[in-house]
Amino acid sequence: MLNCVFCKRSCQNDNSLRNHERLCKNNPNKQIANIDAAREKAYEKHDCRFCKIPFALAGLKKHEQHCKKNPTVIKEKGKNCPVCDVFFLSEQITCSYSCSNLHFPRNNSKKYTNYRTICFKYHKKECIICSENKIVAVHHANEDHTDNRPENLIPLCPTHHQYVHSRYKEDVMDKINNYVENYKLPVA
Asked: In this structure, are residues 2 and 10 in contact, taking their beta carbons and an 8 Å threshold?
């Protein structure tokens, strides 16, 4: 005969002993037989030891590892914003988007300027072939998308822009080449 380590009850074989010990009322880690009682225990709330916010047991450990009041987290991730000097917890350099915009200002170099903005600053916003002015695309005459000089940017409607990149290219290239040749950059 085999005896339970918790209540000394005797069992006939290993399987019955294992099942009894698993559910024994004296076992501090007993498995709860009733599924409703198990669910209640799973959703039982426990307070975070740092911020005192209640969490289910399943999420409590993860929360405590990342809790903003955990001294370890504060020591590892806490810092002052270089713009507004507010203390915050993050791996980011600044505390917010607005501080980021002040800390990393965008300059007005060609690198950051949109080619459409450049085009419509120097050219009329209408297709040079059909005068469409509601929807206007911008074509790079030399096919180099890093060359955003005004003389390289040609305003075209989506249809004629598609012509340029298709087998109907010859239908529009004469007008485009003529426009490029006659274009004079306005004197500032």
From this structure: yes
Residue pair 30/38 in contact by the 8 Å Cβ criterion? no
CA nearest 161: which of 123, 181, 135?
135
* Mean pLDDT value across residues 53-73: 89
Q: How deeply is 65 buried, as exposed, middle or buried, from its count of CB atoms within 10 A (0-12, 13-18, 19+)?
A: exposed
Cβ–Cβ < 8 Å for 73, 89: yes
Count of C-beta atoms within a 10 Å radius of residue 46: 13
Question: What CA–CA distances, in Å, run from 114 to 64, 89, 98?
Answer: 46, 35, 22
For 50-54, 83-87, 131-135, which range has the lowest pLDDT when averaged over its residues?
A: 83-87
Quote the mean pLDDT of the chain: 87
pTM: 0.42
Long-range contacts of 66-73 (CB under 8 A, 24+ apart): none
Task: Give residue 170's pLDDT.
Answer: 94
Residue ranges of domains in the chain: 59-103, 110-182
